[in-house]
Write a structure and sequence with these properties.
The structure holds two protein chains of two kinds.
Chain A lengths: L1 H29 L3 H6 L6 H10 L6 H13 L12 H36 L4 H15 L2 H15 L12 H30 L2 H8 L4 H38 L5 H10 L3 H29 L7
Helix pairs in contact in A: 1-12, 5-6, 5-8, 5-10, 5-11, 6-8, 7-8, 7-10, 8-10, 9-10, 10-11, 10-12, 11-12
Chain B lengths: L1 H12 L21 H5 L1 E6 L13 H10 L4 E3 L5 E3 L2 E6 L4 E6 L13 H12 L17 H4 L16 E5 L2 E5 L7 H4 L33 E3 L8 E6 L12 E6 L3 H9 L5 E2 L4 H11 L3 E13 L10 H9 L3 H7 L6 E2 L24 H10 L5 E7 L5 H15 L2 E7 L2 H9 L7 E6 L7 H8 L13 H11 L4 H18 L2 E13 L3 E2 L15 E2 L3
Parallel strand pairs in B: 1-10, 14-15, 14-16
Antiparallel strand pairs in B: 2-3, 4-5, 5-7, 6-7, 8-9, 9-10, 11-17, 12-16, 12-17, 13-17, 18-19
Helix pairs in contact in B: 1-8, 9-11, 14-15, 15-16
Classes of the chains: A mainly alpha, B alpha+beta.
Amino acid sequence: MVRFVVRRLLQMVIVFFGTTLVVYAMMFGAQGDPIQALAGEKPVSAAQRAYLTEHFHLDHGFWYRYADYVGGLLRGDLGDTLTLRPISSVLAGAWPYTLKLAGLAMVVVVVVGVGAGVLAGVRRGGLFDAATLALTLVVIGVPVVVLGFLGQYLLGIRLRLFPVANEGDLYSLILPALLLGMLSLATTVRLTRTTVVENLRADYAKTARAKGLSRTRVVGVHVLRNSLIPVVTFLGVELGSLMAGAVVIENIFNIPGVGFTLARAVRTEDGPTVVTIVSLLVIVFLVVNLAVDLLYAVLDPRIRYA
Amino acid sequence: MHVRRATARIVVAVVAVVAAGTLAACTGGPATVSAADTAAVVSIGIGEPTHLIPTNTTDSSGAQVLAALFTPLVTFDRNNKPVPAQADSITATDSRVWTIRLKGGYTFHNGEPVTSDSYLRAWNFGAYGPNGQDNNPYFAKISGYAALNPTDPKATPTATTLSGLRRIDALTFQVVLSAPYSDFPAALGYLAFLPLPAAAFDATGHIARGFEDQLVGDGPFQMRDVWAHDQSIEVQRYDSYSGTKPKVGKIDFKIYQDLTTAYSDALTNTLDVLPGVPTPNLATAAKDFGNRYRHSPSSAFQYLAFPTYDPDYSNVNVRKAISMAIDRDQIVKSVFAGSQIAARSFVSPVLPGYRANTCGAACQYNPVAAKELYKQSNGPAKVQITYNADGGHKEWVEATCNQLARNLGVKCVAQAEAKLADLLPKLQNKTPGVGMFRLGWVMDYPSMEDYLTPLYSTGGSANYYGYSNPQFDQLVAQGSQQPTGAAAIRLYQEAEDLLARDMPVIPLRFGQNDFVYSANVSNVSVDLFGDVNLLDITVSGT
């Protein structure tokens, strides 16, 4: 178990540096004049141009700048944004929003998705099953951009059920979290339903029923535990797309999270910020995957890691 | 991005008129400031400011926040002439040596009195090249600027303070310019010339860590909390303020990444004032907000420029023919829903000294005469307009191109560059194949000189068209050396007449501020610079 974790962690280090190199190279290649991009339509003063060029070594080549960046990382210095705020403090402000948003979305996915999936699986062929099938098909077919604006317009502007944009409290995050979770929700429902249906037919479920256990206990304990393995795998991978979806949703709802910061950094050609955020997202992805692998062992004692 | 904009347009098109909002705290009463007003919070939508140190602030969002936190030396009256605000008097004998006397009794929000030193300190910091301040060039007219800004950016300057600044007493100081400049009092209204308290600086003379996030100014409002980046900047009335006191107690500047979201927030009365309506929402703003959708003059000037060094456009008659073939009014109506104004002069109508129609016949739409003149002067068979795709210019540039193609019988290409940042270097290097290009200008302070020098003088900072007329340069230089504004304006106007003759650019449109506000507030006005007037605004019912 320990050896497995250590090996995975070592792999992460390699992946992390690989990612920074690739992303840094891409930003470097795409970059025109970041200082002008920062200033927008106004000319930049010579004094400021000289200052920023010096500060970010913009007059040096790729390898110098990359080495400088990685050197900073190793010293624990994430560097500064082009507006000269430490990236670490920008991220410290942004992460709580994205974590809250993705967390809320995940809760929605797990509670509603697994709940509806089990219900649909148990009452296979019923009205509820058919209804969720139709609904999930529609939701899967709609891109998150459209869902975001549609939800904001219908529930926010039209019905006034939720705030249109982030107001700093948890309540205003509910609508964006719902919309963000919607995509994973649909797939979760379908996946849970299928595995529940399969497991209900399995021998062990029949045995449990024959022993005289109540139906709730059979479904709730025996079937559900086995059905969750593929669902957990899916949700682990899905956390990555929740982060990606956050880029879109956070912009629509004006939530100053990581996705919002990333989108602006891309627009203003803020290389160091983009590289840092993308690399951190990669780390999140890797860690979650590791956690998912470890969860298998908890859900199914037959799985052992050596 | 394109998808999002299109979606937003559809979304807003169906919105019904907003229901009137209510504000429980607002109970009405006499014109004097009531307790209810002090408690009331007004929210204003802005973007995230890049910086808030006055000598480093160049964007409109930052300017709006600084307008709350600081009092400038001068503000501008109804005719956009400077009137002293924190200054008691600004006098000069020959437009070169200016004596500035401050009003006593003003204090910074930390209690420190505002003195000559507050100004000298801030200006010297801004002018010192290695500090990298974006408003650094505004100090270039003051004597001793060159010593602080060596031509080689890596060299260390030979001085740390401007030799042209001299403290006379606690409330008086003297500014010596390197050349006479009659519009200097107007320039003092700009952000770069705000004061800073001693607390702003650390022992090394740099801005103290954390100061920018918790700014201490000398204005009618003080920070209520630290700057919550990307979220909000919250201010409250400064009780010891000795100038005109605002009528509301608190203002929240809410920060938006996307103006469309701010517009939706205003629709649901969550946001009180949005000083700039996003272009996709212009078409429905009147329906959405009724008489709470307003316009006010702004200094923005949109024009089409010629590469005068390019043989295709070097003939002035070709340039005039192209100008005459553009139906400005039609484009204003169809593309901008009347939110901008057709331009037929080279400086903005908000300026003292503006005259309507200085461009003359060359800016009147006359397709027949245009085609004839174009043929006579052997205009090119193919023209091109290059624009930046990041500023929402596609629609009107294409409309203009269609008009040229139809009216002149030429082929016209509307060529996009992804960003203005990509376009400007091409213009700077006179890259061939750019053709005509669109540019815009917003003034820093109301003076004709702030248009004439940067845009049209030889080597002007935004003169990308290679236009150079010694007679023009001389008139502008003479104008700025006049002892009085009126004498200066006469010379500036003569210079403007030369532009009509030479036609280096085609004036197209003057901008307006298009703003909306919620039912919670009244007496909302937006000034020339696009800033909400914070002293006039009230909550509804008072």
